[in-house]
Structures are given as structure tokens and as C-alpha cells.
């Protein structure tokens, strides 16, 4: 039945060669895996830096808003300290 659908089957040595080639195409090599891991680590470091910069931006922005609005406890503090 297989020959009717797929044509004549390959001899075993040729079939093993085809399987080996297919395996190399599907399974990445050790160097490809290492390169992928390195790229993922670089991307993670970039994201960490961006998150850190965003955190600093929001901290600075909240400080600016606090200074613009003034601290409502300032007058009370100065009255008590005097």
C-alpha cells in the first residue's frame, strides 16, 4: 500500500542517509543552540535595562509632580518645628 501512495520505497542504506539528513535539518547543532541561548541572554539583558530605565523615569516623574504640587505636610512640619 505504501508503494501505491508514495512510490517505490528507498533501499535501507539510502533511507538511513535520508533520515540522517532530515535529523540534521530538524535538530539544531550544539553551536546553534549556544548561539540561541546567547541571543536570549542578550535580549533579557536589554529588557532588564529598559525596565530599569522606565522605573527611574517614573520615580523622577513622581518626584517632579510632588515638587510641583508641594507637600501638604510642609506647613504643619514647620509649625511644629518652630
Automatic annotation (TrEMBL):
Protein name per Swiss-Prot or TrEMBL: Uncharacterized protein
Lineage: Eukaryota, Viridiplantae, Streptophyta, Embryophyta, Tracheophyta
Amino acid at each position: 500500500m505504501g508503494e501505491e501512495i508514495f512510490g517505490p520505497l528507498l533501499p535501507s542504506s539510502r533511507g538511513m542517509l535520508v533520515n540522517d539528513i532530515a535529523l540534521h535539518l530538524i535538530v539544531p547543532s550544539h553551536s546553534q543552540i549556544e548561539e540561541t541561548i546567547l541571543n536570549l541572554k542578550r535580549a533579557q539583558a536589554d529588557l532588564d535595562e529598559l525596565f530599569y530605565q522606565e522605573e527611574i523615569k517614573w520615580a523622577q516623574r513622581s518626584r517632579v509632580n510632588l515638587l510641583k504640587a508641594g507637600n501638604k505636610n510642609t506647613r504643619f512640619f514647620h509649625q511644629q518645628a518652630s
